[in-house]
Amino acid sequence: MYWDSWIREIRGGTLAPVYVLGGPETYVARMVVEELENACGLSVPELNLGRYDLSETPIQQVALEARTPPFFGDRRLVIATGGEALSGRSKVPHDLTSWEEYVADPSPTAVVVLLLGDHKMDERKKWVRRVKETGRWWMCPSPKESELTAWVNKEVQRRGFRMGADAVNRLILMSGGHLALIAGELDKLSLYAPGQTISREDVDLLVVPFPEQDIFRWVDDVVRLDMDRALTGLDRLLKQKENPFKLLMLLARQFRLMYHALNEYKSGHVNTDLSAELGVRPYALKIALEQGRRYTLRQLSDVLQWLADADADIKTGRRTDRAALNDFVVTLPIRLKGGEWNAPKTSNPRAGSPSRPGSVKA
Q: Domain of 187?
């Protein structure tokens, strides 16, 4: 994992005077902060640990505390959240000159941590250049697919139980690849089956279906043609008042992603920028490729056309969004096998499709 070298550096006793942590993966930033708290040896935390929110406190106050000698200890640790306030759009009067002077000549007995969150700071700013010279500018991106899987397996082993590859993939999918969510669910799974093997079914049973992740799980069931789960999940989502048109568009997005991933794979070369071009996490692209291998490119092209037809039917009033969604899910396996099916013609936009076994009424 990309953060392993950071942790080794801190545990080895090499501490920089200033750390700036940012990027979308806040869980990694929290791990680094915890390591710094341990490394600073705060025997009296209430005296040598300062926490500030820069949306309320000016940065010069942070610099002032960092200049204060530690009490009954060797180091003072000062943590400031809300670093995006230093971008110049804050109501708090931040004295950046004072901050620049501190970064240029930091206290030898203090460690200052500035948390940016997912805000992208202008790296041309003078204080940013100073941090890169005298401290650590560590950005925390979403882990690559290989890093994410390796991290989950490592955390599973550390907690003393086992998970099959299918269960690991399911957990990552349901959590959206967010480390904090995965860590919380791993704690729960370790209590459920200490020393045993967790299956995909166990993950489905125990992992909390957050609204977004519940939808992702349902999309996965549809594209894998697991119709029992797909229809049960569809009924559940509609009862939760999820918008049928939104669900249809999410299916279209996933099938389109599968098409691009499979096409890239079959072309014999890997475009490392493809996930960025498509606006998805690298692991999401890996999942799309695994799903896409169940289809041919021609089948995926046909599915995208069927989804486009459903979209057109909704917009022209030929079918309701709920009927179009239900018909697509129910008939997908039939049409992929070459079966004939024609959408019902109706002049009443409120009319649904004829009822089918397991279908959801419009």
A: 145-206
Among 59, 54, 161, smallest CA distance to 100 is for: 59
Say what percent of the chain tops pLDDT 90. 53
Task: Note whether 101 and 57 are within 8 A (CB).
Answer: no
Domain end (from 186, 206, 226): 206
**d(Cα 118, Cα 100) in Å, to the nearest integer?**
22
Going by the DSSP 8-state scheme, the letter that residue 69 receives in this structure is P
Residues 197 and 221 in one domain: no
Do 229 and 184 share a domain, yes or no? no
Q: Is the pLDDT of residue 117 over 90?
A: no
The β-bridge partners of 77 are: 49, 111
3-state secondary structure of 255: helix
* Phi/psi of residue 161, nearest 5 degrees: -140, -175
Max CA distance (Å), the chain: 82
pLDDT of amino acid 276: 66
Cα gap 315→4, rounded to integer Å: 51
Dist CA 31 CA 34 (whole Å): 5
- Record the tokens describing residue 45, joined without a space: 């935390």
How far apart are the C-alpha atoms of 137 and 97, rounded to whole Å? Answer: 19
Residue 110: φ, ψ to 5°: -135, 150
> C-alpha dihedral over 83, 84, 89, 93, to 10 degrees?
0
CB burial class (10 A; 0-12, 13-18, 19+) of residue 191?
exposed
Q: Please report, as a single letter, which amino acid is at residue 316.
A: T
Sorting pLDDT into bands at 50, 70 and 90, what band is 273?
Answer: low
